TrEMBL record:
Keywords: Signal. This is Lipoprotein. It holds the Pfam family Lipoprotein_16. Residues 1-18 form the signal peptide.
Length: 191
């Protein structure tokens, strides 16, 4: 009987260690409707890469010793790719698998840093994307970045962190969607 209790207790402990208890964020980048569209349809191949060194989207620091990373529920690169597809298609571009025209979106940073104490928290969000529009005749490269800060007297909830991250992502995607210089380059150079 004693041996059976040890086995049951060990199974409960190991089962508790194996169960996923990590909090996760819903990363859902979207742009508002864009104001710039092209006159005639152009095809392009879209690729999205995630070059961040750390794959979490939030880092919650409590005191000086404890830091808890929070990851996304979905793949951040895939979510960003869907958002960019939506932006480009709404502008009149046709996305294909292979084309001499390409747009590469590089996710360089997407992070909300939360400094939490007993009575307050500070949130600092930053999103950085590098866009490369390339044709056989040359390429256009530009980095887009957005940030936001927030303070409140209560602890930061996952919903507040999600809201801030998605809001900053929207600002950056809007910058890309409404960048006349980028759109003009693609309209003139893409075949």
């Amino acid at each position: 009987m004693k041996h059976l209790l040890i086995i049951v207790f060990s199974a409960l402990i190991l089962g508790g260690c194996a169960s996923p208890t990590d909090q996760q964020l819903n990363f859902n980048p979207q742009a508002d409707s864009n104001q710039v569209t092209i006159k005639e349809q152009k095809t392009l191949a879209l690729t999205t890469t995630d070059v961040r060194t750390a794959q979490y989207l939030a880092l919650v620091t409590k005191g000086e010793d404890k830091a808890m990373p929070i990851h996304a529920k979905q793949n951040a690169r895939v979510a960003l790719n869907k958002a960019m597809q939506s932006v480009l298609q709404s502008q009149g571009f046709v996305i294909v698998n292979k084309s001499d025209n390409s747009v590469d979106v590089e996710l360089q940073e997407a992070l909300v840093r939360v400094k939490s104490s007993t009575f307050s928290n500070q949130m600092d969000a930053k999103v950085t994307l590098k866009v490369t529009a390339e044709t056989p005749a040359g390429k256009f490269v530009k980095t887009y970045s957005g940030s936001a800060k927030g303070d409140n007297s209560m602890g930061a909830s996952n919903e507040q962190i999600e809201h801030m991250l998605n809001h900053v992502s929207k600002l950056v995607l809007n910058d890309i969607a409404n960048d006349v210089e980028l759109i003009n380059y693609m309209q003139e150079k893409f075949q």
